[in-house]
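Now for today's protein:

——
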Amino acid sequence: MLRFGCPQVVIDRLDPLVNPGQIPSPHMHQIVGGNAFNATMTKGDVATAAGCTTCSFPEDLSNYWTANVYFKAKNGTYKRVPQLGAALQFSDNFSNKMKDGILVYYVSATPGKITVPKPGFRMLSGNPTLRTVDPKMKMQNCYRCYTGPNFGGDTAAPCSDAKLDTQSFPKGACAGGIRSNVLFPTCWDGVNLDSPNHQDHVAYPTSGPANFLAAGSACPSTHPIKIPQLMLEVVWDTTKFNNKADWPTDGSNPFYLSHGDNTGYGQHADYVFGWKDKSLQKAMDTSNCFGAGTCGGLKVQALDAATKCAVKPVVNEDRDGWFAQLPGMAMPMA
């Protein structure tokens, strides 16, 4: 299992998968990884286009992005929720010093039997329009309410414990913040690097989404190629907004994904593959790897070097103030 941190490379209202070329896109994202990220990443190998990456492994020039989370105050205004790094008790020195970004997992239960996607591969996990529970996807996306400071309550694998994890935003204030996890499909048709909805070329095992530490089950015949289990993890620092006196008076949940969802069911994430050469394949073929070590010969860069990698925002708008409405909500969502 590779488990490594990637600080933000940019926060911007762009989505080259769902809204390629559209400036701005309908809602805000936080993006990590290589500095080749732009509004028109519709094809090609980003590993050859990027010159640096925010990820701890410099061989990983991929891009990963998720919706942002916002707090809605009693007066109806919104403010972006900041992030924390990774859980100190489980993380490496790079990740637990991050001030923002995403923790990335690549997991193989069977080293040597997993095929890494080809350059140009991309996919999307989740459905931003979902507002009710999907029982078939209970292991795909989840949230965990940290019960105390310093990631209190982080006692089980993500999306694995019905008492700790929910598909919707947690109810009530979380003393240590909210963790969100998105798991991607693990089966590929082996032919198409993308599909019109960015999902049909990949699939979950025949038993449905599997916990990222489990071996999973067989891939369907339509998608026979097993690919690494990719999971993204974000810790939202909601602690600054835990005063119930500031919450909406109608009792509604005050936390919103940036596309206007305060249920949390619409959590989703995007991925564009951008590993150099065969670096990821070598790592996934290596047994007994755990965390952000030099698995399969991977190098590790310093956090200071990673955070210097950046993309200049394209959309000129405030990202940290209080807003009368969520950025882009006046636009129709594709």
Summary: Helices lie at 46-49, 279-284, 303-307. The chain has three helices and 18 strands. The mean pLDDT is 89. The radius of gyration is 19 Å.
